[in-house]
Each structure stands twice: as structure tokens, then as C-alpha cells.
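Sequence in, structure out.
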Amino acid sequence: MGKIFCVMGKSASGKDTIYRKLLEEEKLGLNRIVPYTTRPIRAGEAEGKEYHFTDEEGFKALDESGKVVETRVYNTAHGPWRYFTVDEGIDEKKDYLIIGTLEQYAALRDYFGADRVEPIYIELDDGDRLQRALNREKKQAVPKYAEMCRRFLADAEDFSEENLKKEKITNRFINVNFDECVGKISDFIGSCLGR
């Protein structure tokens, strides 16, 4: 039976870059699980790459068919946006990588089974994360510092030690040195896959 590795961590911990790097490692042979969203497509995004883009009616049809594994709704200035995972074309014999939240990991684990879903939690000192987030935001055409701060504070609650302990997150990797961190995660995934 294949494994599903769920990469997660607080904002600016480096999880997106680590996720992309792990997908590039041919020796791991990981497939992507592409999540769905009801938010509008952004410039530079492509259908089926970052997300499958749909609307609320599309979500309802998938949900009624029993294919929705988990869903989260965020109330934005543009109205509610839904993000969700669909069990569509996920082969139980293949190995997958997905990037997500602690809540998403728990739903995937409960749906596919704890023996199939492995958490990979990326850690970084809060001061380093805040500096990375600030540097990233400064490069945006229209920096959204208030949103950056909101995410930073929300992550402190979402990824609290209490919540990590509750979900039994023990596969934790510190991202101070990127290459070293990716190497350790790659070795962990390889050991889980018997490679």
C-alpha cells in the first residue's frame, strides 16, 4: 500500500520550497495530490497545477458524490473561499506528497488510515519566520502586512504544541539549513518507503 506524506508548518517555515524540492527527487517517486479551491485563479497559476479551480456548485457536486475528504472555509474580504481535498484518482498503490494544514492532515489520516498517512512538520524559530515573511512581503507589488501578521498569529494557535501533541506529530524537521533539512526529510521518506 502506498503512503501519503503531508508536509505542514507555520507560514514562512519554508514548507512550500521543501515540498517542491521533494517532488523533484526522482528516487522518491512521489506524486502530487492537487487540492481544490473555490477562490478565483490568480495570475501565473494554471488549472490542475497549484489547484483545481471550481465554484461552490462544483464543491457541492463532489461532496454529494462522497469524494470530498476534507474541507476548510476562510472568510476573506472577497467572501468565503473553500479549500478541499478530493479522493479522485488517488491510487492506493502509489506514494503521494501533499502540502497542508494540521487540520487537513488529521482529516486525511482519518480518511485513508494512520498506516498510510505520514506527517512531516517543518519547524523554524518564530523570529526567523517573521523576518522571512517580512522580506517576502516587501517584494510584493502591494505588501499586505496586516494579513502577514494575521497569518503569523493564527499559526501560533493552529500549530500550538497542544495541537501538535493531540495529533501525535512526531516527525519534526528544523529548517535552519535548507539542504540539510531536505536531506533529512528525504531520508525519512525513503526509510518509510523501504528505499
